[in-house]
Amino acid sequence: MSQFRAAASRPPMRSRTLTRREAGRTLLNAALAGAAMAAGLSAAPALADTTFPAKPIRLVIPFPPGGGTDILARLVANQVAQSTKWTFVPDNKPGAGGTLGIAEAVRAAPTGYELVMGQKDNLVVAPWLYKSVSYVPSRDLIAISHVAFTPIVIVTSASSKYKTLADVVAAAKTHPESIKYGSPGNGTTIHLAAEIFSQAAGIKLLHVPYKGSNAAMMDAMAGNVDLMVASVPSALAQVKAGKLRALAVTSATRSTSLPSVPTVAESGYKDVDVSTWYGIFAPAKTPASVVERIGAEVNKVLATPEMVQAIHEQGAEARLLSPKQFADLVDSDYRKWKSIVERSGAKVE
C-alpha cells in the first residue's frame, strides 16, 4: 500500500448553465445549513484524544479503483488530509458486492486507525442477499459521517439503438431476457434497482455482474452489454464525454448532475425510487473520543462550499447528518430493505 497524501486543491468549477448554478446553490445552502451541526461536533468532544492520530489511517474501500465509492472515498480523504495534515492510506478491497471490505473492517482493531467507506449496497442490502454475510451494521460498526447520496442511472452506449427507456421496455417485451445489463456486482443496491425496475415494467433482463463499475462501463461503451446500471458518480464522466447515453435515473427526483435525464417514474413506472448513500464507519468499540475527533474533522470539510461543489461535480450530492441521524438512517434502511429484497426475488448464492 502506498500512502495517500493530499494533493493541491483545485478551485471549484464554474457552473455552465443556469440549471446547474441553481442546483449548486441549493446543494450549497443545504450543506451550509448543516455547518452548525459540524461545528457542534468540533466543539463537543472536550475529552477527545488530542494525540490522535499518531500514525497513518487506513481507509478500506470495498470496491475497485475508479468507481463511485472509490472516487468519493479518495476525495474525502484528500480534503481531510489537506485540512488536518493527517495521512490516509486508501486500500481497495473489492469482492462479493462490497461485503468483503466491510467484513474486513468489522474484524479490524477498534483503534480509529482502521476505517471503511461503506454504502447502502454492502451495509443494508447485501446482508439480506448473501447467506455468508453475518455482520449487522448497528452492532458491528459505528457510523462516523454521512458523506453523500446519489441517484442510480441506467445508461447505454452512445451508439446504441436504445434512445429512451421506453425503447428498452418494448424490446424486452418482444424478446424476454435478450437484453443484458451490467452492474458493479451481485447484491448491490444498483443490482436491486435494476430488478425493481424490471418488475415494475413487467420485463425480464439478463443480469451480468462485474467486479466493480469500471469493467461494466467498458463493456457498455463497447456494446458488449446492452445497458449498464451504475451510481451517477461512476458513470457521469463518460456520459458527459458522450460515450454513454443516460436513459433514466431511479431516484424520486432528477439528479442535479444530470438534470435533463428523466426519472424512471417520469418514464411511467411510479413504484421505482432507489438511490444510494455513502459514509465513513469505524469498527464497533472504537473509543468515542476518537470517533468524535474523526467525525468533527470530516464534517468540517464536508460543510465547506469547495467540498459541496467537488462532490456535486462527481455526480453526488452532499448532505450533512449528525452521527445519530446517520446511524438512525443506516438502521432504518437495514430493516426496510429486508422486505424490498424479499419482494424483488433477487438472491445471491
Gist?
The protein is of the alpha/beta class and 349 residues long. Helix content is 43%, strand content 18%. Belongs to the UPF0065 (bug) family.
Structure description:
This protein has 349 residues and is of the alpha/beta class. The chain has 2 domains: 18-150 and 275-344, 3-Layer(aba) Sandwich (D-Maltodextrin-Binding Protein, domain 2); 152-249, D-Maltodextrin-Binding Protein, domain 2, CATH 3.40.190.10. Helices cover 43% and strands 18% of the residues. The chain contains 13 helices and 10 strands. It has helices at 18-33, 35-43, 68-84, 99-107, 120-125, 137-140, 165-174, 189-201, 213-222, 232-240, 288-302, 305-313, 323-344, and strands at residues 57-61, 88-92, 114-119, 141-157, 180-183, 206-209, 227-231, 244-249, 275-283, 317-318. Strands 1, 2, 3, 4, 5, 6, 7, 8, 9 and 10 form a 10-stranded mixed sheet that branches. Helix 3 links the parallel strand 1 (57-61) and strand 2. Keywords: Receptor, Signal. It comes from Cupriavidus agavae.
